[in-house]
Amino acid sequence: MNQNSQETTIMNLSVQGGSAATAVGNPEKLRNLMRTVGMLPVLLLLILGFSLLSQNFFTLQNLSIVTQQASVNIVLAAGMTFVILTAGIDLSVGAILAASAVVAMLASMSPQYGMLGIAAGLGFGLLLGLVNGVLIAFMRLPPFIVTLGALTAMRGLARLLADDKTVFNPELPFAFIGNDSILGVPWLVIIALLVVALAWFILRRTVIGVQIYAVGGNAEAARLSGIKVWKVLLFVYAVSGLLAGLGAVMTASRLSAANGLQLGQSYELDAIAAVILGGTSFTGGVGSIVGTLIGALIIAVLTNGLVLLGVSDIWQYIIKGIVIIGAVALDRYRQSGART
Question: 11 pLDDT exceeds 60?
Protein backbone atom coordinates (compact mmCIF):
# COMPACT_ATOMS: atom_id res chain seq x y z
CA MET A 1 0.00 0.00 0.00
CA ASN A 2 1.52 3.35 -1.05
CA GLN A 3 1.78 6.29 1.30
CA ASN A 4 -1.03 8.34 -0.25
CA SER A 5 -3.55 5.51 -0.15
CA GLN A 6 -2.57 4.65 3.42
CA GLU A 7 -3.07 8.24 4.56
CA THR A 8 -6.45 8.33 2.80
CA THR A 9 -7.50 5.12 4.52
CA ILE A 10 -6.40 6.44 7.90
CA MET A 11 -8.40 9.62 7.45
CA ASN A 12 -11.45 7.60 6.42
CA LEU A 13 -11.09 5.42 9.49
CA SER A 14 -10.93 8.43 11.78
CA VAL A 15 -14.12 9.79 10.23
CA GLN A 16 -15.83 6.43 10.71
CA GLY A 17 -14.76 6.52 14.35
CA GLY A 18 -16.35 9.97 14.75
CA SER A 19 -13.04 11.83 15.01
CA ALA A 20 -13.15 15.56 15.54
CA ALA A 21 -9.89 15.66 13.62
CA THR A 22 -11.75 15.53 10.30
CA ALA A 23 -15.04 16.89 9.08
CA VAL A 24 -17.39 15.38 6.54
CA GLY A 25 -19.92 18.13 6.14
CA ASN A 26 -21.82 20.54 8.33
CA PRO A 27 -23.83 17.95 10.33
CA GLU A 28 -20.62 16.21 11.35
CA LYS A 29 -18.95 19.52 12.21
CA LEU A 30 -21.93 20.50 14.34
CA ARG A 31 -21.92 17.13 16.11
CA ASN A 32 -18.20 17.46 16.86
CA LEU A 33 -18.68 21.02 18.12
CA MET A 34 -21.47 19.91 20.46
CA ARG A 35 -19.28 17.12 21.81
CA THR A 36 -16.45 19.57 22.42
CA VAL A 37 -18.33 22.41 24.12
CA GLY A 38 -21.57 20.62 25.03
CA MET A 39 -20.75 20.73 28.76
CA LEU A 40 -19.72 24.40 28.73
CA PRO A 41 -23.23 25.54 29.76
CA VAL A 42 -23.03 23.15 32.73
CA LEU A 43 -19.73 24.73 33.79
CA LEU A 44 -21.20 28.22 33.50
CA LEU A 45 -24.31 27.20 35.47
CA LEU A 46 -22.15 25.73 38.24
CA ILE A 47 -20.12 28.95 38.43
CA LEU A 48 -23.32 31.02 38.54
CA GLY A 49 -24.95 28.76 41.14
CA PHE A 50 -22.00 28.69 43.52
CA SER A 51 -21.54 32.45 43.08
CA LEU A 52 -25.11 32.98 44.28
CA LEU A 53 -24.81 30.47 47.13
CA SER A 54 -21.42 31.66 48.42
CA GLN A 55 -20.07 35.20 48.33
CA ASN A 56 -16.55 33.80 48.59
CA PHE A 57 -16.74 31.78 45.38
CA PHE A 58 -16.52 34.36 42.60
CA THR A 59 -13.46 36.18 43.89
CA LEU A 60 -10.08 36.53 42.22
CA GLN A 61 -8.39 34.64 45.05
CA ASN A 62 -10.80 31.71 44.96
CA LEU A 63 -10.82 31.47 41.16
CA SER A 64 -7.03 31.29 41.32
CA ILE A 65 -7.38 28.47 43.84
CA VAL A 66 -9.86 26.65 41.57
CA THR A 67 -7.55 26.82 38.55
CA GLN A 68 -4.58 25.63 40.60
CA GLN A 69 -6.62 22.77 42.03
CA ALA A 70 -7.73 21.87 38.51
CA SER A 71 -4.22 22.00 37.04
CA VAL A 72 -3.02 18.55 38.12
CA ASN A 73 -6.28 16.92 37.06
CA ILE A 74 -6.07 18.70 33.70
CA VAL A 75 -2.61 17.21 33.15
CA LEU A 76 -3.72 13.71 34.19
CA ALA A 77 -6.92 13.97 32.16
CA ALA A 78 -4.95 15.02 29.09
CA GLY A 79 -3.01 11.77 29.28
CA MET A 80 -6.22 9.87 29.98
CA THR A 81 -7.76 11.39 26.84
CA PHE A 82 -5.05 9.81 24.70
CA VAL A 83 -5.73 6.43 26.30
CA ILE A 84 -9.54 6.52 26.16
CA LEU A 85 -9.46 7.67 22.53
CA THR A 86 -7.99 4.23 21.75
CA ALA A 87 -10.85 2.57 23.70
CA GLY A 88 -8.48 1.91 26.60
CA ILE A 89 -8.37 2.95 30.25
CA ASP A 90 -5.62 3.78 32.73
CA LEU A 91 -6.63 3.21 36.33
CA SER A 92 -3.06 3.49 37.57
CA VAL A 93 -2.38 7.22 37.03
CA GLY A 94 -2.96 8.11 40.68
CA ALA A 95 -0.56 5.41 41.84
CA ILE A 96 1.99 6.38 39.17
CA LEU A 97 1.72 9.97 40.40
CA ALA A 98 2.40 8.87 43.98
CA ALA A 99 5.40 6.71 43.06
CA SER A 100 6.84 9.38 40.76
CA ALA A 101 6.39 12.07 43.42
CA VAL A 102 8.29 9.95 45.94
CA VAL A 103 11.10 9.41 43.42
CA ALA A 104 11.19 13.14 42.63
CA MET A 105 11.41 14.02 46.33
CA LEU A 106 14.15 11.47 46.98
CA ALA A 107 16.16 12.76 44.02
CA SER A 108 15.73 16.35 45.23
CA MET A 109 17.62 15.59 48.44
CA SER A 110 20.97 16.04 46.70
CA PRO A 111 22.33 19.47 47.71
CA GLN A 112 23.88 20.18 44.32
CA TYR A 113 21.58 18.31 41.94
CA GLY A 114 18.17 18.76 43.56
CA MET A 115 16.62 20.03 40.32
CA LEU A 116 17.17 16.56 38.89
CA GLY A 117 14.13 15.62 40.93
CA ILE A 118 12.02 17.02 38.09
CA ALA A 119 13.65 14.74 35.53
CA ALA A 120 13.47 11.81 37.95
CA GLY A 121 9.73 12.26 38.46
CA LEU A 122 9.04 12.61 34.75
CA GLY A 123 11.29 9.69 33.84
CA PHE A 124 9.81 7.35 36.44
CA GLY A 125 6.28 8.19 35.33
CA LEU A 126 7.26 7.50 31.72
CA LEU A 127 8.85 4.19 32.71
CA LEU A 128 5.76 3.00 34.56
CA GLY A 129 3.55 4.09 31.67
CA LEU A 130 5.71 2.08 29.28
CA VAL A 131 5.29 -0.98 31.51
CA ASN A 132 1.52 -0.67 31.11
CA GLY A 133 1.92 -0.11 27.39
CA VAL A 134 4.11 -3.17 26.87
CA LEU A 135 1.67 -5.43 28.71
CA ILE A 136 -1.27 -4.09 26.72
CA ALA A 137 0.33 -3.67 23.28
CA PHE A 138 2.55 -6.75 23.13
CA MET A 139 0.91 -9.24 25.48
CA ARG A 140 -2.56 -8.04 24.42
CA LEU A 141 -3.88 -8.05 27.96
CA PRO A 142 -7.07 -6.06 28.67
CA PRO A 143 -6.25 -2.44 29.65
CA PHE A 144 -8.71 -2.54 32.55
CA ILE A 145 -7.07 -5.60 34.11
CA VAL A 146 -3.50 -4.40 33.48
CA THR A 147 -4.00 -0.93 34.92
CA LEU A 148 -6.13 -2.21 37.81
CA GLY A 149 -3.28 -4.52 38.78
CA ALA A 150 -0.79 -1.71 38.20
CA LEU A 151 -2.81 0.55 40.49
CA THR A 152 -2.22 -1.82 43.39
CA ALA A 153 1.35 -2.74 42.49
CA MET A 154 2.50 0.84 41.91
CA ARG A 155 0.81 2.04 45.08
CA GLY A 156 2.78 -0.61 46.95
CA LEU A 157 5.94 0.44 45.09
CA ALA A 158 5.40 4.05 46.13
CA ARG A 159 5.09 3.03 49.78
CA LEU A 160 8.16 0.81 49.48
CA LEU A 161 10.28 3.58 47.96
CA ALA A 162 9.24 5.98 50.73
CA ASP A 163 9.74 3.34 53.43
CA ASP A 164 6.03 3.87 54.15
CA LYS A 165 6.78 7.38 55.41
CA THR A 166 6.29 10.90 54.13
CA VAL A 167 9.33 12.19 52.26
CA PHE A 168 9.71 15.87 53.12
CA ASN A 169 12.17 18.42 51.78
CA PRO A 170 11.78 21.94 53.23
CA GLU A 171 14.48 23.19 50.83
CA LEU A 172 12.88 21.75 47.69
CA PRO A 173 14.63 23.50 44.78
CA PHE A 174 11.62 23.32 42.46
CA ALA A 175 9.02 24.43 45.03
CA PHE A 176 8.48 27.56 42.93
CA ILE A 177 6.46 25.45 40.45
CA GLY A 178 3.72 24.88 42.99
CA ASN A 179 3.84 28.23 44.77
CA ASP A 180 4.99 31.01 42.44
CA SER A 181 3.51 32.72 39.40
CA ILE A 182 4.48 34.62 36.26
CA LEU A 183 2.70 37.97 35.78
CA GLY A 184 0.10 36.80 38.27
CA VAL A 185 -0.55 33.47 36.55
CA PRO A 186 0.46 30.46 38.70
CA TRP A 187 3.11 28.15 37.28
CA LEU A 188 0.71 25.22 37.78
CA VAL A 189 -1.87 26.83 35.51
CA ILE A 190 0.73 27.71 32.88
CA ILE A 191 1.99 24.13 32.80
CA ALA A 192 -1.54 22.74 32.52
CA LEU A 193 -2.39 25.07 29.62
CA LEU A 194 0.86 24.19 27.83
CA VAL A 195 0.01 20.49 28.18
CA VAL A 196 -3.46 21.11 26.74
CA ALA A 197 -1.99 23.07 23.82
CA LEU A 198 0.59 20.38 23.07
CA ALA A 199 -1.99 17.60 23.36
CA TRP A 200 -4.31 19.49 21.00
CA PHE A 201 -1.51 19.86 18.46
CA ILE A 202 -0.60 16.17 18.61
CA LEU A 203 -4.19 14.98 18.27
CA ARG A 204 -5.25 17.44 15.57
CA ARG A 205 -2.12 18.19 13.56
CA THR A 206 0.05 15.06 13.51
CA VAL A 207 -0.06 11.63 11.90
CA ILE A 208 0.09 9.87 15.26
CA GLY A 209 -2.95 11.90 16.33
CA VAL A 210 -4.97 10.69 13.35
CA GLN A 211 -3.79 7.16 14.03
CA ILE A 212 -4.98 7.38 17.65
CA TYR A 213 -8.49 8.22 16.46
CA ALA A 214 -8.32 5.49 13.82
CA VAL A 215 -7.29 2.80 16.33
CA GLY A 216 -10.06 3.88 18.68
CA GLY A 217 -12.62 3.86 15.88
CA ASN A 218 -11.72 0.40 14.58
CA ALA A 219 -8.45 -1.19 15.67
CA GLU A 220 -8.63 -4.11 13.24
CA ALA A 221 -9.39 -1.90 10.25
CA ALA A 222 -6.56 0.40 11.32
CA ARG A 223 -4.19 -2.57 11.43
CA LEU A 224 -5.27 -3.73 7.98
CA SER A 225 -4.67 -0.22 6.62
CA GLY A 226 -1.02 -0.42 7.67
CA ILE A 227 -1.12 1.32 11.04
CA LYS A 228 1.11 -0.34 13.64
CA VAL A 229 -1.50 -0.55 16.38
CA TRP A 230 1.06 -1.67 18.97
CA LYS A 231 3.05 1.53 18.44
CA VAL A 232 -0.04 3.66 18.95
CA LEU A 233 -0.98 1.82 22.15
CA LEU A 234 2.56 2.01 23.48
CA PHE A 235 2.60 5.73 22.72
CA VAL A 236 -0.67 6.59 24.49
CA TYR A 237 0.19 4.69 27.69
CA ALA A 238 3.66 6.24 27.68
CA VAL A 239 2.05 9.69 27.37
CA SER A 240 -0.32 8.86 30.23
CA GLY A 241 2.59 7.77 32.42
CA LEU A 242 4.71 10.79 31.48
CA LEU A 243 1.91 13.21 32.32
CA ALA A 244 1.27 11.38 35.59
CA GLY A 245 4.96 11.99 36.30
CA LEU A 246 4.49 15.66 35.47
CA GLY A 247 1.48 15.74 37.79
CA ALA A 248 3.72 14.21 40.46
CA VAL A 249 6.27 17.01 40.10
CA MET A 250 3.51 19.62 40.25
CA THR A 251 1.98 18.05 43.37
CA ALA A 252 5.31 17.54 45.14
CA SER A 253 6.36 21.11 44.38
CA ARG A 254 3.19 22.43 45.99
CA LEU A 255 3.48 20.27 49.13
CA SER A 256 7.29 19.93 49.37
CA ALA A 257 6.42 16.38 50.40
CA ALA A 258 5.20 13.04 49.05
CA ASN A 259 4.05 9.70 50.40
CA GLY A 260 2.90 6.45 48.89
CA LEU A 261 -0.19 5.89 51.01
CA GLN A 262 -2.43 8.91 50.45
CA LEU A 263 -1.00 10.96 47.59
CA GLY A 264 -2.92 10.53 44.34
CA GLN A 265 -5.78 8.54 45.87
CA SER A 266 -8.79 8.51 43.49
CA TYR A 267 -7.05 10.93 41.10
CA GLU A 268 -7.74 8.45 38.30
CA LEU A 269 -11.49 8.78 38.92
CA ASP A 270 -11.38 12.57 38.61
CA ALA A 271 -9.36 12.25 35.40
CA ILE A 272 -11.76 9.72 33.88
CA ALA A 273 -14.76 11.85 34.87
CA ALA A 274 -13.18 14.92 33.25
CA VAL A 275 -12.53 13.05 30.01
CA ILE A 276 -16.02 11.57 29.74
CA LEU A 277 -17.73 14.80 30.79
CA GLY A 278 -15.70 16.48 28.05
CA GLY A 279 -17.28 14.33 25.35
CA THR A 280 -14.69 11.61 24.80
CA SER A 281 -16.37 8.25 24.25
CA PHE A 282 -15.46 5.21 26.34
CA THR A 283 -15.63 3.16 23.15
CA GLY A 284 -12.84 5.22 21.58
CA GLY A 285 -12.38 7.21 18.41
CA VAL A 286 -14.35 10.28 19.52
CA GLY A 287 -13.31 13.17 21.71
CA SER A 288 -11.18 16.28 22.10
CA ILE A 289 -8.71 17.77 24.53
CA VAL A 290 -10.70 21.02 24.72
CA GLY A 291 -13.69 19.05 25.97
CA THR A 292 -11.45 17.39 28.56
CA LEU A 293 -10.34 20.83 29.77
CA ILE A 294 -13.98 21.83 30.27
CA GLY A 295 -14.67 18.55 32.08
CA ALA A 296 -11.72 19.05 34.43
CA LEU A 297 -12.90 22.57 35.24
CA ILE A 298 -16.37 21.22 36.05
CA ILE A 299 -14.83 18.75 38.53
CA ALA A 300 -12.70 21.51 40.11
CA VAL A 301 -15.57 24.01 40.38
CA LEU A 302 -17.86 21.34 41.83
CA THR A 303 -15.29 20.30 44.44
CA ASN A 304 -14.41 23.86 45.42
CA GLY A 305 -18.02 24.97 45.58
CA LEU A 306 -19.02 22.06 47.81
CA VAL A 307 -16.16 22.88 50.18
CA LEU A 308 -17.21 26.53 50.40
CA LEU A 309 -20.77 25.44 51.17
CA GLY A 310 -19.51 23.29 54.02
CA VAL A 311 -20.47 19.96 52.47
CA SER A 312 -18.72 17.11 54.28
CA ASP A 313 -16.09 14.90 52.65
CA ILE A 314 -18.52 11.99 52.77
CA TRP A 315 -21.12 13.78 50.69
CA GLN A 316 -18.45 15.12 48.34
CA TYR A 317 -17.47 11.54 47.50
CA ILE A 318 -21.11 10.59 46.97
CA ILE A 319 -21.80 13.57 44.72
CA LYS A 320 -18.62 13.04 42.66
CA GLY A 321 -19.53 9.36 42.30
CA ILE A 322 -22.95 10.34 40.97
CA VAL A 323 -21.23 12.73 38.54
CA ILE A 324 -19.03 9.89 37.21
CA ILE A 325 -22.03 7.57 36.78
CA GLY A 326 -23.92 10.39 35.12
CA ALA A 327 -20.98 11.02 32.78
CA VAL A 328 -20.97 7.39 31.66
CA ALA A 329 -24.76 7.46 31.21
CA LEU A 330 -24.40 10.64 29.16
CA ASP A 331 -21.78 8.93 27.00
CA ARG A 332 -24.15 6.02 26.34
CA TYR A 333 -26.94 8.46 25.50
CA ARG A 334 -24.70 10.32 23.06
CA GLN A 335 -23.73 7.04 21.40
CA SER A 336 -27.35 5.96 20.99
CA GLY A 337 -28.23 9.38 19.63
CA ALA A 338 -25.40 9.17 17.08
CA ARG A 339 -26.74 5.84 15.79
CA THR A 340 -30.29 7.12 15.25
Answer: no
